[in-house]
Amino acid sequence: MSQDTNIPNGDNRSRASSGMRHKPERLEQCDWYWGNITREMVQEKMREAPDGSFLVRDAASSPGEYTLTLKKGGCNKLIRIMHSGSFYGFTEPLNYRSVPELITHFQKFSLAVYNEKLDIRLENPISKKLSSDLDTSVEKLFDALAKKELEFKTQNENFTVIHNYYSSSKNDVAKANIEISAQKQIIEMMHNQIQALNGYRTEITDVRELKELEDNYQLLSRRTTIQEQALTHIQKQLRDFILQVNDFEKQINQLKPQLIAIQRDRLYYNQLLLDRGIQGADIMLDLHKRSGLVTPAVESRSNDSDVNHYENEESVYMAVAEEDEDDAIYATFTALNYERREDEERRRRQAPPPPGKAQYVNGRGVTMKKLSTMDPSANPGTLSKTSPSYSQTRFQDKEPYDLPPSYPTATPRDSIVRPPKHNPLEEPQKWLVSFDRDEARKKLFESREGTFLIRKAGNPKQDHDDPMAEHQYTLDILHHKDVKHVKINYHKGIEKYGFAAPYEFPNLVDLVKFYSKKSLKQHNPGLDTVLTYPLYHQQ
């Protein structure tokens, strides 16, 4: 429920039964009624109040009506109290004979009857006469503080367990990325060797040498297959690890606001006791007697009564993420904060190994020593350590080998396929642009709903959640008369694109085609749209 929101009708009690035999209390006698005070004053009164705290003031815009301010989820909710005749309430029909009767009722019953998001009672009145309020007596404050201490201890232990799993999964992701990089280097070296051997098969005339070369070729091919299978397995493991990290991160993000709210409550009750002249040492001693649950946060607070608000919440892992660009809708999950190593040149060709004693055949140097026998079932992960030396060739007089052209797959930065021009979604020139952010917004504001473009990221950044993922492109789309921005990441480990893990698209065309039919709301509930019109589509 947002500020200044009328609560939906949910109370079906009759007027006759609601106030019968109940003598209304005068509103001016209620300590939670503050009369004609400003919203700024209300915010100050509610600043460190726990959830369930409330007060009532005169409505600024509607004479004769009132505004209930309620703390829920760490935020102030403003609820209009309507008035008609001699009855009051949140919605029609108005069933309460006075504002005190309405407040008294919801001090016992939850407001969820009106709105499921307001599953809370009016528990803690913000009183003008705090010293005479029975609900804030010293004994009750000690009870409330001890309760919050126990609640904090339980939730923080749960948080710690989940955070440890999260850290472990994060380490698994880092190790898998390193292993994938090593496997790719091994496979690339093997392909270079195979290509070199294949080039000499037509140049050797000696039967014995040709037989040795053929044996080397077959053995190296089998080992390459083993390494490629191992790479596929590690890439699958990496995807599983990323999903685990995301799952634990979601749980952590759910616990953070709960811990923050409990921490605020602890400090609130502790400050009330300090305001009553109780020394910090006495507060700790009483809590030790009650439960033995004094935590460092309360101990520090109790020993320093000059601190007006809690400034450091690191003890409960509560670093609150700042929002990114104000109008951006980013689909990536980010919570990890470790340094990322420089991106190696992933497709750089390996330098040839040091040449051994070479025999010269038709003017070309090639070592004809036969490869040692190796069990193909051996652990492929140890191949780089245990494999014998492969045939050495001189590459200086050979042109660099390029794989034959095929349907393009993802490569860093520029992986744009160019299919036949029959579908504008399959034509990158229709939606891939070189604009900057401002120019992209200007172009899209002149277009119709659902128009989109993709541009290179102005400042590519590595993803905090995965060292192998990098923000390389940005999708801009016009939705509800506003331009929304979504990061497109490229994952170097599995060589695919996507908005978030798991990365599934080998190129940008496949991504565009998929989201032309699938809504983007799976990444953000506020972006329920598909990629409909490329920027340069001729209607």
Tally of distinct domains: 3
Alpha plus pi helix count: 11
Secondary-structure element sequence?
HHEEEEHEHHHHEEHHEHEEEEHE
Choose one word for the global shape: elongated
- Oligomeric description of these chains: single chain
Task: Provide the CATH top-level class of the largest domain.
Answer: Mainly Alpha
- Share of helical residues: 25-40%
Taking the alpha carbons of the first and last residues, their distance comes to 42 Å
Percent in strands = 5-15%
Q: How many strand segments?
A: 13
- Sheet with most strands: 6 strands, mixed
Using the 3D structure, state the CATH architecture of the largest domain. Answer: Orthogonal Bundle
Structure characterization notes:
This protein is an alpha+beta fold. It has 11 helices and 13 strands. It has helices at 15-18, 39-45, 99-108, 138-200, 207-275, 280-290, 296-302, 383-386, 428-431, 437-445, 508-515; strands at 53-58, 66-72, 75-84, 87-89, 124-125, 359-361, 364-366, 432-433, 451-462, 469-479, 482-491, 496-498, 533-534. A hairpin with a 2-residue loop joins β2 (66-72) and β3. α5 (207-275) runs parallel beside α7 (296-302) and α6 (280-290) packs antiparallel against α7 (296-302). It is elongated, with a radius of gyration of 34 Å.
